[in-house]
Amino acid sequence: MSLPPGFLDELRTRTSLSQVVGRKVMWDQRKSNQGKGDMWAPCPFHQEKTASFHVDDRKGYYYCFGCHAKGDAISFIRETENVGFMEAVEILAQETGMPMPARDPKAQEKADRRTLLVQVMEQAVQYFRLQLKTGAAAAARDYLAGRGLSEPAQERWEIGFAPDAWQGLWDHLVAKDVAPELILAAGLAKPSQKGGKPYDTFRGRIMFPIRDARGRAIAFGGRAMDPNDNAKYLNSPETELFDKGRTLFNHGPAREAAGKGQPLIVAEGYMDVIALSEAGFGAAVAPLGTAITDNQLQLLWRVANEPIIALDGDTAGLRAAHRSIDLALPLLEAGKSLRFALMPAGKDPDDVIRAGGAGAMTKLLDAAQPMVQLLWSRETEGKVFDSPERKAALDKDLRTVIARIQDPSIRGHYGEEIKRLRWDLFGQKRGAQKGKWRPRNAPAPALASTRASSLVAATERFSEELREAVILALLIRYPGLMPRFESQLEELNFTSFEHQKLQNALLQNHAQTDPALMQSAIEAETGPAPLENLFSLGHVQIVPALRAPGNEEAAQLALAEAFAKLIADRAHESELSHAEAEMAATPNEALTWHLRENNQARDSAMRGDTEDRAEYDTLDNGARLVREERERFRTLLAQLGMDESNSGGS
């Protein structure tokens, strides 16, 4: 939601930054002067013994002279609690007694109902906790003790017990004047099909509360005490509070622990998460189903760039890992992936910790495999490639898998790594010089190394970031053009984290039409640095529509041109990466056709259809970038034994 003008200024005015920071640090009393609001402490963002972290309480800003972390109360909450911008604002608003801006009546009504359901769930948590102390729960207590869970640990995780009674919880809540409709809506009971009273959803089970990222009880997971029960583990049904595919067990505490540098571990079930956390691995979560969903994967990537999937060392665990790979491949982005720590055969993380302690688990996490390695193992283990046909079948399968990766750069790197592994599998040997891998009786392929060189990568990044910066700057200065270009902006994958932050801020304030208010809203969400960096760039300052503000028509033309060229660039890179993946197996005429068509499309996009070509040559930093791109393409063609005369280039 958009915040009204002045709300954030008022929030910062009411907030004492030293009180907010003081919950996380120990002030250096010798250096600090509380009367002047001049406070010093060891930095909470990096390990140090000296007090180099400075808080200016009057100005409301902090700065670390060691790691250069800086910001205000909102950014401090975001970094230390690992929450989003709006969550940080809500936390501070609640602490200072400021009401959040009113929402529309229907939204407020929905929020009020959710609050009532959460209250019902909290009453159920307390009921199950009390039941665990009764005589009927003796077997449950013995089971928990056998799993190594002490009473303090059971308190921390609020573990309870649902007695084996049809209306135990129902009668308890009704006696507390809870409306029957709310009990049913919370998923705690089910209506009788025979016309009788509703009956409890959970009976004869050890109960684990499931809380959302903000710590509110939204569901339960129950482990059956009866070994013959059809469902060993049972989750709450989906409700207004609980969406199984969008929830992670232990999400909130794990997010905070990951924000302090702990590795994010994804385990299979409640007991694994509890065992990991109790052993010191606080950033542990579990999906609430048989496999990770795409929504849960996005939640994981918001917490950490490379979550470690820690799965049971059995066939089912391996199948779950393979499902995670298939889910993640199309969603991979630069820097975001998965790693896999496979437990010993027949063991889960809880077993590993009980047998070998935290040290044994640390060794497995340190040895976690990258996703490409597990993908290769899946495609090759247990198979024999003793004929050209079988090798060709492997190549086809690998090409199909790699083609699912949307990001062209990542797809290219996967092609290189798969090619290396393929050479290794089919009996390659190291070259005599410098230990380089070379296939027997064949020259070393130069295509991948040429494309992956740091010089080419730097040129590509510069060209893309140039156009991204112009797009962002134009939309910030001409927010009235957002409706026309919003969909293109939303679909664009920006190359840098700073550009991503500006993209998110623009989309969040898409309804804003005043340039000054748009800039203020963005600065409130990202801080001043990203905007300062953006508008200080030389190739942004020379864009005519930015150099002389007010010409919305020129800005619209410049935006259309920048979007078109950026999309054309990335389509071009996608085709080339696809060609590399093809070359990992066997080059053919189809590859030549792809390159010819792609080169023609690229040249057409680079020529453009605008009337004022000089203006857009300036926008592209001159024809130099075009020449460099063509030179790179000629290098690629030379690797394929082709030249521009037969590739369709001009």
Condensed summary:
RNA polymerase that catalyzes the synthesis of short RNA molecules used as primers for DNA polymerase during DNA replication. The chain is of the alpha+beta class and 650 residues long. Helix content is 53%, strand content 10%.
Folded structure, characterized:
- Belongs to the DnaG primase family.
- Helix content is 53%, strand content 10%.
- The longest helix has 32 residues.
- The relative contact order is 0.05.
- The chain is globular, with a radius of gyration of 29 Å.
- It starts with 6 loop residues before the first helix and ends in an 11-residue tail after the last helix.
- Helix 11 crosses helix 14, helix 19 packs parallel to helix 21 and helix 22 crosses helix 23.
Mean pLDDT over the full residue set: 82
| Spatial separation of the terminal alpha carbons | 50 Å
Spans of at least 5 consecutive residues whose pLDDT stays below 50 are: 428-460, 605-626, 642-650
What's the arrangement of strands in the largest beta sheet? 11-13-12-14-15-16
The dominant shape is globular
Tally of DSSP β-strands: 18
Task: Domain count, please report it.
Answer: 4
- Tell me about the largest β-sheet: 6 strands, mixed
Fraction of residues in helix = 40-55%
Radius of gyration: 29 Å
Strand percentage: 5-15%
Please tally the helical runs, counting DSSP H or I stretches of 4 or more residues. Answer: 29
Helix/strand structural class: alpha+beta
GO biological process, one term: DNA replication, synthesis of primer
Protein name: DNA primase
GO molecular function: DNA binding; DNA-directed RNA polymerase activity; zinc ion binding
Function: RNA polymerase that catalyzes the synthesis of short RNA molecules used as primers for DNA polymerase during DNA replication.
